[in-house]
UniProtKB/TrEMBL annotation:
<dbReference type="InterPro" id="IPR046960">
    <property type="entry name" value="PPR_At4g14850-like_plant"/>
</dbReference>
<dbReference type="GO" id="GO:0099402">
    <property type="term" value="P:plant organ development"/>
</dbReference>
<dbReference type="GO" id="GO:0009451">
    <property type="term" value="P:RNA modification"/>
</dbReference>
<protein>
    <submittedName>
        <fullName>Putative pentatricopeptide</fullName>
    </submittedName>
</protein>
<feature type="repeat" description="PPR">
    <location>
        <begin position="386"/>
        <end position="420"/>
    </location>
</feature>
<feature type="repeat" description="PPR">
    <location>
        <begin position="253"/>
        <end position="283"/>
    </location>
</feature>
<dbReference type="GO" id="GO:0003723">
    <property type="term" value="F:RNA binding"/>
</dbReference>
<feature type="repeat" description="PPR">
    <location>
        <begin position="182"/>
        <end position="217"/>
    </location>
</feature>
<keyword id="KW-0677">Repeat</keyword>
<dbReference type="InterPro" id="IPR011990">
    <property type="entry name" value="TPR-like_helical_dom_sf"/>
</dbReference>
<dbReference type="Pfam" id="PF13041">
    <property type="entry name" value="PPR_2"/>
</dbReference>
<feature type="repeat" description="PPR">
    <location>
        <begin position="81"/>
        <end position="115"/>
    </location>
</feature>
<feature type="repeat" description="PPR">
    <location>
        <begin position="285"/>
        <end position="319"/>
    </location>
</feature>
<dbReference type="Pfam" id="PF01535">
    <property type="entry name" value="PPR"/>
</dbReference>
<dbReference type="InterPro" id="IPR002885">
    <property type="entry name" value="PPR_rpt"/>
</dbReference>
Length: 473
């Protein structure tokens, strides 16, 4: 694009031009074109002539993924209006710079500008992503003071915030006070209630009310409710939802089919899983295969799960880390080392052996199959470790009654800046119990709350009781 070839170019046309770059199919191309316009307005001295141009640059850069450039333009602006702040806060939220978005919102509040609906929506979205409920409550109060809380988009953002932070009563209150609803509102309240076992049937009631009110159920609605049914193994309810899916002609949506497979697998209806899976040969994705494999494993059909893995490999289907980790976990649960070794060979062929999820599952599988030497050797070779990797090896040594090695590994874990979690302490205290390390057990039990900020749970107290009992107290 040559700027000299443009006829009659003015400030308004530049603003329109900048907004068009965010619509490019390839955002990188839009970003490149935007930078050309940016260079042009700097060269011609137009950049400070009107705030709309700078706003357009902030918006363009943010939507094209160049959030650092957007921040730079914003920082150099002499005059900022509400659109300037909204463009940056929204851009930070969309680019997952959530803390920065909240900071800019707070900075804006110190100016004389009043937040708009768009400001509140972006700030609430960032709070939801960070699960910052206290900050979210403050923004909710701000919306109430401004009389913007009843706007349907702001209410939907509040529903998302309270849903993501598990505040079901607040979600109900927001929904109850809404003067109008849209499909997002209904999906949000159904999803929020479906996330808790205590309110699953209430979610179904809202689903029925949604249908009675004339709203169309869509993919989001079905996946939310099926996910709940799956988590809590509510077989009859799952079948009823399946009937509604068929009624809406949504049964050939891959995401919904995957949710149905997961649901029936968790409910023990593996034949229904196989029927759905067999009807979607052209629509299967990685989630479909993983859901079917997980269904087999959940129903203790490891040979079928293994067969499906081999079938995937033979047909050139891509296997991901979740597939291998799921099968390795199943091998560990039944202590079948031979099968686990076969899965590891497949992971090596798929170049996934070094993946932290697969690596952690391998350490867990070896330790549970009694080959703590293999587990230790593989653990030492892994470049990236997470809490699960450490916990698996600590558990392996504890299971083998090697309290001293467990103690050394626990110390090494802390020295390498991997904070122990509740699972780590359960496994470490179990090792202390088996090895008779009373003093060490009590010392680290006390450090849970004092040093690591972890409140002891029932299982930790059970370990201490076991430790004292074995020591003859």
């Amino acid at each position: 694009m040559e700027m000299k070839d443009l006829v009659g170019i003015n400030i308004d046309s530049l603003v329109v031009l900048l907004s068009s770059f965010t619509e490019f199919c390839v955002l990188e191309e839009g970003k490149r074109k935007g930078r050309e316009v940016h260079a042009y307005v700097i060269a011609t001295g137009l950049i400070n002539s009107k705030v709309a141009i700078e706003n357009g640059l902030v918006n363009m850069n943010a939507k094209c993924g160049a959030i650092d450039d957007a921040c730079s333009v914003f920082r150099l602006m002499v005059d900022r209006d509400l659109i300037s702040w909204n463009s940056l806060i929204s851009g930070l939220d969309q680019n997952e710079c959530f803390e920065d978005a909240i900071m800019k919102f707070s900075e804006m509040r110190k100016s004389e500008l009043t937040p708009s609906i768009f400001t509140l929506i972006s700030a609430l979205s960032s709070c939801a992503s960070l699960e910052w409920i206290m900050m979210g409550l403050q923004i909710h109060c701000e919306a109430l003071k401004l009389g913007l809380d009843l706007d349907v988009s702001v209410s939907n953002a509040l529903l998302a915030l309270y849903s993501d932070t598990g505040c079901l009563s607040e979600s109900r209150n927001v929904f109850f006070l809404m003067q109008e609803y849209d499909q997002v509102s209904w999906n949000s309240i159904v999803g929020a209630l479906a996330s808790s076992e205590a309110s699953v049937f209430e979610a179904v009631e809202y689903l029925l009310e949604m249908m009675r009110s004339g709203w169309e159920l869509n993919r989001v609605t079905f996946i939310s409710i099926l996910s709940a049914v799956s988590s809590f193994s509510l077989h009859e309810l799952g079948q009823q939802i399946h009937v509604v899916v068929l009624k809406y002609n949504a049964a050939k949506d891959c995401a919904i089919e995957n949710a149905l497979i997961a649901c029936y697998g968790k409910c023990g209806q593996i034949e229904d899983c196989e029927k759905i899976f067999s009807r979607m040969p052209e629509r299967r994705d990685e989630v479909s295969w993983n859901s079917m494999i997980s269904g087999y494993i959940h129903n203790e059909l490891l040979p079928k799960a293994m067969y499906l893995v081999w079938f995937m490999i033979e047909r050139g289907q891509k296997l991901d880390s979740f597939t291998f980790a799921t099968v390795l976990s199943a091998c560990a649960s039944v202590a079948t080392l031979e099968r686990g070794m076969e899965v590891r060979a497949c992971a090596v062929r798929a170049y996934l052996e070094s993946d932290v999820v697969v690596g952690s599952a391998l350490v867990d599988m070896y330790s549970k199959c009694g080959r703590i030497d293999y587990a230790s050797r593989f653990f030492e070779l892994t470049l990236v470790r997470n809490a699960y990797s450490w916990n698996s090896l600590i558990s392996g040594y504890a299971r083998n009654g090697d309290g001293q090695k467990t103690l050394r590994l626990f110390t090494q874990m802390k020295q390498q800046d991997q904070p122990p979690d509740h699972v780590t302490f359960v496994r470490f205290l179990s090792a202390c119990s088996l090895a008779g390390l009373v003093d060490e057990g009590f010392q680290h039990f006390n450090s849970m709350s004092k040093v690591h900020g972890l409140a002891p749970r029932m299982e930790h107290f059970s370990c201490i009781v076991d430790l004292l009992g074995r020591a003859g107290y």
